[in-house]
Design goal:
Elements: E1 2-6, H1 14-28, E2 32-38, H2 42-46, E3 52-56, H3 65-77, E4 81-84, H4 90-101, E5 105-109, H5 117-123, E6 129-132, H6 135-143, E7 151-153, H7 161-164, H8 169-175, E8 183-188, H9 197-210, E9 214-219, H10 225-234, E10 241-245, H11 250-253, E11 259-262, H12 271-278, E12 283-286, H13 291-294, E13 301-304, H14 309-320, H15 323-340, H16 343-358
Parallel strand pairs: 1-2, 1-4, 2-3, 4-5, 5-6, 6-7, 8-9, 8-11, 9-10, 11-12, 12-13
Helix pairs in contact: 1-16, 3-4, 9-14, 12-15
């Protein structure tokens, strides 16, 4: 079996990392994999093991030329199936390219943002099957009219191993310039509106009155960074907020957090939450999308309603005030990741869909 994978992301964020897990896992099972990705991207530089990478121009939704470039690649390589892993043009242009080349096509859907029933009726004709990374996303598609037999949930996975090693507290605090007695809440997310950074900054002044040793570490990068930095300064939060940037060595430090906060408005599943759980970190997040599948309310963390700042403040306050509860949630989260979110299960799930699509 030969599969052409298309991943249009430029950076190894959650979705692109999942693609890396999938192609390497498939290669280990004897599947011939070809991975098309943007020239100069992190994915192109990483060169996943056992996978042939084809860097090419990918200009996103405004680049219809992707259709011809991908169709040419499909005709030259003759894969049995095309698997589209991302948006940014790869979904629509990739689907059209597969149709032009007459090759079956599978789409992975990683976001829960709604689409009109008309758009779903037209666009999803391009795909022989759709794989969602959470049941929450699957239910969104079903509610928009996609036939149940055409969509399968295969949850994202996490390689827990790098997150299992204990983090030395003194080394962690020295790395990020934190006081020895700091209570550290982390945010690990792209700096884009739907991740909800603004809600945390809004409630932080009130939380600092109750927990003056609280410090927020914001990991990541994105178009909202300048705006968020300005808001931190305007609220007088410079001493309580650190911008840690995008860290390739995040597994080394994630376990040093006392809690992770992810107040997202929309989310497919939340890979950073799975990573935090693997590191034994308790979580505060919302009931948006697939997040209730990543975090069990009252077991591995606390869930709130999206955009509800009062609930957000209360949940952070509860965890900040209770070290025993943080430890219990963290231990339960790690055990659940090891039991339910393995890479092997995700690879097997994707392979089962391929075989279903290719079955005569």
């Amino acid at each position: 079996m030969k599969i052409l994978h298309v991943e249009a992301g430029k950076f190894l964020y959650g979705g692109a990392r999942q693609v890396q897990y999938i192609v390497e896992g498939l290669a280990a099972r004897g599947i011939d994999n070809l991975l098309a990705c943007p020239a100069g991207s992190d994915t192109a530089r990483q060169q996943p093991a056992g996978v042939r990478v084809v860097p090419m121009k990918m200009g996103g939704d405004g680049d219809p030329g992707m259709v011809l470039r991908l169709a040419s690649l499909i005709r030259a390589e003759k894969p049995d199936l095309v698997h589209l892993h991302s948006r940014r043009g790869a979904d629509t242009w990739g689907g059209l390219a597969a149709k032009l080349a007459g090759v079956p096509c599978v789409l992975s859907r990683r976001v829960d943002n709604p689409e009109s029933r008309l758009a779903v009726a037209i666009k999803y004709r391009l795909y022989d099957h759709v794989i969602t990374i959470s049941e929450g996303i699957r239910q969104v598609l079903l509610s928009e009219g996609l036939a149940p037999e055409k969509v399968t949930c295969v949850r994202s996975a996490v390689d827990a191993t790098p997150y299992l090693a204990p983090v030395d507290a003194a080394t962690f605090r020295a790395e990020f310039g934190l006081p020895a007695d700091a209570l550290v809440a982390g945010v690990v997310a792209q700096m884009i509106p739907r991740k909800g950074h603004r809600y945390l900054l809004s409630v932080l002044p009130g939380l600092l009155e109750k927990h003056p040793k609280l410090i927020v570490l914001i990991f990541g990068q994105g178009p909202l960074e300048a705006e968020l930095r300005a808001e931190v300064q305007s609220r007088g939060l410079d001493a309580a907020v650190r911008f840690a940037g995008f860290r390739h060595d995040l597994p080394r430090w994630l376990g040093g957090l006392d809690l992770l906060v992810h107040p997202a408005d929309m989310e497919g599943l939340g890979v950073s939450l799975l990573q935090a759980s693997a590191a034994g970190v308790p979580i505060v997040t919302t009931r948006a999308g697939g997040l209730p599948e990543a975090v069990l309310d009252g077991v591995t963390g606390l869930l709130i309603d999206p955009g509800n700042e009062a609930q957000l403040a209360a949940a952070i306050d509860r965890l900040a005030a209770d070290p025993a509860l943080r430890a219990r949630f963290g231990a339960a989260g790690r055990a659940r990741i090891l039991a339910e979110f393995s890479i092997d299960a995700m690879v097997a799930g994707n392979l089962a869909v391929y075989r279903q699509v290719l079955r005569p």
